[in-house]
Amino acid sequence: MLGLPIDDPMADRLDRYEQLLLEKALPLGMIGRGDQGRVRERHIVDSLRGATLLGPGPGRVADLGSGAGLPGLPLAIARQDLTFCLADVRTRRVAFMELAVDRLGLSNASVFAGNVEQLVGPFDICLSRAFAEVGRAWTIAERLLSPTGKLVFWAGRSFDGGAGVPAGARISVSAAPGLADAGPIVIMSRQ
Description:
Elements: H1 8-25, H2 39-48, E1 60-63, H3 72-78, E2 83-88, H4 91-104, E3 109-113, E4 123-129, H5 134-144, E5 145-154, E6 169-174, E7 185-190
Parallel strand pairs: 1-2, 1-4, 2-3, 4-5
Antiparallel strand pairs: 5-7, 6-7
Helix pairs in contact: 1-3, 1-4, 2-3
């Protein structure tokens, strides 16, 4: 899947996470009801598109506005060589992520309950999927990133790399490989 080797323990964890999303996150409105029949493709596989873009481990990753743990939890399952901090300010979402981290036995993931502006870096990577527009995401991430760190940003299908990219940021764009409704992933770093 997406050039990412998936062994049996990883597949089992991804399946259990999908069940948690359906049983707990969906009823609480953390993912849209319209996504019920396509949680795997729309959320889990879409999140996993970032796995090969994170670079080699070890390293620290901050998932900004993680919500139901997307993309951080699928990536923590796939990339055990990295340490993930899942950040969200909303109490229900924090509780869901804490439950998921515990049930999935993810020793490489922790949950930060608070505003992302309160996070303390440095992080090697910041993730942004359905968190904020590109300019705001970069402003927050830039403060948290190590000097060589990068922001991995899930952009919408209408993303225009020539417009709205913050000054001082260098970007590269990774296409969405065969996923319905998926936009590119934009990787941003300092110039």
